[in-house]
């Protein structure tokens, strides 16, 4: 038996509760992981609070991230005692996830835990931080560099935004952080932001082309925020888009693309190929300051995961929340 957070939906309604499950109920896969830490991402928050159609099969153990130790394996790349990290692959959506003491997962989904990180630090990064690194890699892949000008980070006090701010500042960028939480300006400057602006400057409909301000953008918000960021991006600039906190719509025009040669680079973390995942984790181990990672992290036990998800969805969380499983 093991403890797990279990979500269920039936004619009686939706439920989320900490319970005990038999290992025999775990889905089929070739690696059994003892989960030591997980985390609450935006997608986890949607699932646990039933605010979005994240879960595709019921019942479901949520938790799209996990870090821990291999207990059993029939996969050739993994043996008992190995330390591993899981991000995405539909876990917590169509396959039982890591907000549990045990998870049975496919070995092809796992990345070796970098020696630079403990399981707790890996989950302080989690999908949010790994996505932020994918955004940085996208900017670099499209040829934009810190000497080209300022970079805008939207949703800056969130998980993606916090890690992106810290990474970009350390890599030499002058970061402008957009947030709706004016009281968190000092926090963002601690992470490396050179300037902080009110998200209201970007959240409402704007002109198709606006004053050129940004050489690059990391956007986790979508909708009008992304459209305005595109309209303010300099000629030849790059915008990495990875989120939809404001909405899935893109109510803009082609003007930034055909008149300023702006590149909109989509960033997906869920199904990213393994070589890109490994590169992202290698770069996180090199480029993310552990002290700043700790400054953006709070912790909850597995019995506090539901409350943490509710606080996240109510905008009461900054940075990252790790969930201590053991």
Structure description:
- The structure is a single chain.
- By secondary structure, this protein is of the alpha/beta class.
- The protein has 2 domains: 2-113 and 296-324, Quinone Oxidoreductase, Chain A, domain 1, CATH 3.90.180.10; 127-266, Rossmann fold, CATH 3.40.50.720.
- It contains 10 helices and 15 strands.
- Strands 3, 4, 5, 6, 7, 14 and 15 form a 7-stranded mixed β-sheet that branches. It has a 6-stranded parallel β-sheet with strand order 10-9-8-11-12-13, with helices on both faces.
- Helix 2 packs across helix 8.
- The protein starts with a strand and ends with a strand.
Please tell me the total number of domains: 2
CATH class of the largest domain: Alpha Beta
Strand content: 25-35%
Which homologous superfamily in CATH is the superfamily of the largest domain? Medium-chain alcohol dehydrogenases, catalytic domain
Q: Can you tell me the residue ranges where pLDDT is under 50 for at least 5 consecutive residues?
A: none
Report Rg.
20 Å
Largest sheet: 7 strands, mixed
CATH architectural group of the largest domain: Alpha-Beta Complex
Tell me the distance between the termini: 14 Å
Shape: globular
Number of helices: 10
The fold-level CATH name of the largest domain is Quinone Oxidoreductase, Chain A, domain 1
Series of secondary-structure elements, N-terminal to C-terminal: EEEHEEEEHEHEHEHEHEHEHHEHE
Number of strands: 15
Mean pLDDT: 96
Helix content: 25-40%
Helix/strand/pairing class, anyone? alpha/beta
């Amino acid at each position: 038996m093991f403890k797990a957070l279990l979500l269920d939906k039936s004619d009686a309604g939706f439920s989320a509760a900490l319970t005990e499950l038999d290992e025999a109920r775990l889905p089929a896969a070739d690696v059994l992981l003892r989960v030591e830490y997980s985390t609450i991402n935006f997608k986890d928050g949607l699932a646990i609070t039933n605010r979005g159609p994240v879960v595709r099969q019921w019942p479901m153990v949520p938790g799209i991230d996990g870090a821990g130790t291999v207990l059993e394996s029939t996969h050739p790349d993994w043996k008992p005692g190995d330390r591993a990290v899981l991000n995405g692959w539909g876990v917590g959506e169509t396959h039982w996830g890591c907000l549990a003491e045990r998870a049975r997962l496919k070995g092809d989904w796992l990345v070796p835990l970098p020696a630079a990180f403990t399981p707790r630090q890996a989950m302080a990064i989690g999908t949010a931080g790994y996505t932020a690194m994918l955004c940085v890699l996208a900017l670099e892949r499209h040829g934009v560099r810190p000497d080209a000008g300022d970079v805008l980070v939207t949703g800056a006090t969130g998980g993606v935004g916090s890690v992106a701010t810290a990474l970009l500042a350390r890599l030499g960028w002058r970061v402008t952080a957009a947030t709706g939480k004016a009281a968190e300006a000092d926090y963002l400057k601690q992470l490396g932001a050179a300037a902080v602006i009110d998200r209201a400057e970007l959240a409402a409909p704007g002109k198709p082309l606006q004053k050129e301000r940004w050489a690059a953008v990391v956007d986790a918000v979508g909708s009008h925020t992304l459209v305005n960021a595109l309209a303010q991006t300099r000629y030849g600039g790059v915008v990495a888009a990875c989120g939809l906190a404001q909405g899935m719509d893109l109510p803009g025009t082609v003007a930034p693309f055909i008149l300023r040669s702006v590149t909109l680079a989509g960033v997906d973390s869920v199904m990213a190929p393994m070589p890109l995942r490994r590169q992202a984790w290698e770069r996180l181990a090199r480029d993310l300051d552990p002290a700043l990672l700790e400054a953006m992290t709070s912790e909850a036990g597995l019995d506090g995961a539901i409350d943490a998800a509710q606080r996240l969805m109510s905008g009461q969380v900054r940075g990252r929340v790790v969930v201590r499983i053991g």
